[in-house]
């Protein structure tokens, strides 16, 4: 269980003369140690190091538990966004000749045109959403083409839109639709939703035959379903404030 040479979580310490034992409090993005006044710093360090695995697991659990109703963040400089599960820091430049969005490793850069008259926060949210939806349309189009060639199925159209409670949909006219928020999820999860909807072109139900079809192309579908059940609520627009969820 030694975490030697590995990542040790950062933490803050609060000492109290009335305390007799050391307690580690884990929050989604921080760790606080409550300690007796006289205990040595090295003892606290050692304990945190020993408990690293437990702390990381606990934080992961807490982060998954962010409620759907948590306060939406105001998107601005420094906000965290996701693109195919990769965290991105938002950088905003105002008063630019034109509006554009540029994705680079670790960050998403939004330039806002000086002609935009809306309040800054509305403009940021609106322009990013437009960009995300356009990118999601391209991404889904490409992945659906690849999967349909592989599965020898041909949907009549690929639609990316907003759904309140669905990740995807397939109708009797052969149109497959996807929730654009999925573009923030891992690529493997998106693939599952695509295989799921394409499989409906053969089986318009959730019968054992349908799941057989899904399994043929996506054997680990149970993991993907579990991810959507536990972490799907994190796919929101604007993103939820992770810190308010405890
Ligand atoms: Zn279905």
TrEMBL record:
It comes from the Bacteria. Pfam families: YgjP-like. InterPro entries: UTP_pyrophosphatase-like (IPR053136), YgjP-like_metallopeptidase (IPR002725). Residues 20-230 form the YgjP-like metallopeptidase domain. Transmembrane segments: none annotated. This is M48 family metallopeptidase. It comes from Amphritea atlantica.
